[in-house]
Amino acid sequence: MYTEKEGLRLGLVGWVKNTAAGTVVGQAQGPAAMVEEMKFWLSKEGSPTSRITRARFTNQKPIDKLEFSGFKTRF
Q1: Which domains does the chain have, with CATH numbers?
Q2: What is the pLDDT of residues 6-17, one digit of tens each?
Q3: Where is the Acylphosphatase-like domain (predicted)?
Q4: Are 66 and 35 within 8 A, CB to CB?
Q5: Cα angle: 39, vertex 19, 13; to 5 degrees
Q6: Which of 3, 12, 34, 51 suits 72 as a labelling partner, its CA being 20 to 30 A distant?
Q7: Are 47 and 2 in contact (CB under 8 A)?
Q8: Model-level pTM?
Q9: Using CA atoms, how far apart are residues 15 and 11, in angstroms rounded to an integer?
C-alpha cells in the first residue's frame, strides 16, 4: 500500500508484491529521475513497518514505451 502510493506520487507505472520470504519484488517504469527516487525510497525508507536490511535492483534497462498503466500492488 505505501509502496504503491509512493510509485503513484512519483508518476511511475508498474507493480510491487510482498513475497512469502519477506522480501519485495516488482517493476517500476517512468522517467529515469523518478525511478532513481523510487529506488532511494525503497532502499532507505519503505513502508512504516518495513525493516530494510538490503536493496538490490536488477534488470535495469531503457525502454521505448511504458508496459504498464498505473502502479499496483499484486497479491
Answers
A1: 1-50 (3.30.70.100)
A2: 999 999 999 999
A3: 1-75
A4: no
A5: 40
A6: 51
A7: yes
A8: 0.90
A9: 13
